[in-house]
Design brief:
Blueprint (H helix, E strand, L loop, with lengths): L2 H7 L19 E6 L3 H10 L4 E2 L2 E8 L2 H10 L3 E7 L7 H12 L6 E6 L7 H7 L4 E4 L5 H39 L4 H16 L5 E7 L9 E6 L17 H11 L3 E3 L2 E7 L4 E7 L7 H43 L6 H21 L8 H11 L11 H4 L7 H22 L7 H11 L20 H16 L10 H10 L7 H21 L1
Parallel strand pairs: 1-3, 1-4, 4-5, 5-6
Antiparallel strand pairs: 2-3, 7-8, 7-11, 9-10, 10-11
Helix pairs in contact: 3-4, 6-7, 6-9, 7-9, 10-11, 10-15, 10-17, 11-14, 13-14, 14-15, 15-16
Amino acid sequence: MSNEHSHAEDDWLIDDSVEPSVARPEPPWRLLIVDDEPDVHRVTRLALRGIEYKGRSLELLSAYSGQEGFELLRDQPGIALTLLDVVMETDDAGLRLVQRVREELDNLLVRIVLRTGQPGQAPEQEVILSYDINDYKAKTELTLQKLYTTVIASLRAYESLVAIERSRQGLSKILEGSANLYQMHSLREFASGVLAQIGAILDVGTHGILCVRRGVGSDSVALQVLGATGSFAEMAHHDELDEGHPVYPLMLQAIASRQSLYAYPNEVLYIPTQTRHEFLLYFTPPWPLTEVDKDLLEVFCSRIASAFDNLHHHLQMARAQEATVVALADLAEYRDSDTGDHVLRVEHWTARTARRMAERGDYPDELTPRFLELIGMASILHDVGKVATPDLVLFKPGVHDQEQREVMRRHASIGAAILQRSARMVEGQSYLSIGAEIAGGHHEHFDGQGYPQALKGEQIPLSARIVAVVDVFDALMHRRPYKEPWSLADSLAYIRERSGKQFDPKVVAAFLDEVDEEYSESQDSA
């Protein structure tokens, strides 16, 4: 039977669906011949010459022993099929190689066809039951036609397994990437994670833009730009996507149809959320998406929506907590309009000082990202206990007598108690728990001479040690009922002089660095 005729008989083996005009670049199918007879290699190469499957030619590799075959399978990626002799350097060299490939290399994808010139030496039934092979042939069976059929069937099986494995890996990347998205605390960070994950799922570097439209069902079609990568990176600096941008009408098309738009090279993922937001992700893959790609992206879209809803609720809760903190601070400062700006300045300097200390490597176990996120806002609660201080004492223009001093000092314990009761309702660190530390400890002195508990050194919470410096500095710099404002030089001189006595020296050093930097910048701009 002629080569052409035998190939024609087996055309049913090949998927003849129309391929896209621009397809993912694919290398030749890699086949490995493992046999200790050079003639077998030559005959096999001759028989498979010119064969293609799905437009891809065959690349034939040769090994002449089981060990050499193992090394090639270990070192050469993407071998689809191994035509393997049973008897080589030993009577069971081929069988041992099968075990090593499946167990040592954990390669379950490569198709293995055993060929033997001595069928009785390794009985077919026993071999098929005991070894993970895909076919078992006597060399005399493998005519040109049968060899062609075996190769094409094996390539088809390998292709299906690779597609399944790619889906599995893609889903694994989705789960891993989604977990990261759930941990993100800002929209910009979220956008960056989404764009990076799309590239990972498709196994390419993606050029893309992620936009959000707020308020599903509204007349507004304003698209806020959250992030952009690759050739679109410049768009990340824009607040909104311009209506004249070529991507804009494509996103509108996806919004109108309420579904993703796959029109290579312009792909738009449409991602609605339960919080009445619509995400539009435009990206340009280097080749048309396969059905597997589209399925994976649709799964990822649902994960993105869930992650965003989680982020949205997190941000709303954070804002609610911040609003509660501000309300408590406003309540404490309600009777004194002069101190409203004081708490804002304390928040500013506290956050900066804490960040500077983290950069310097101070107290690494305490200066965690969560602590740095919370301490600025928490600091505005430092004097919340003054809500219980009588006006006669709070606004006295002169020096307090001993009794009044004791009344005034109670605000630290009262503030700590108020905030501690509320903080118990929130698990872990919160604005309230750190605020309680600050309220109760910002009048303690590093040398143990402060109040209300005469704590010393690191017995005083770090948050309170930071606010202690900031609070005194701001009080010195601004007018109070009992004093005129001090100069910057005198205020800083006092802070330096009290380092190691009233204040933690590490806090003082970081604070002075921040003050020096800010005032130097203001002088330069002037």
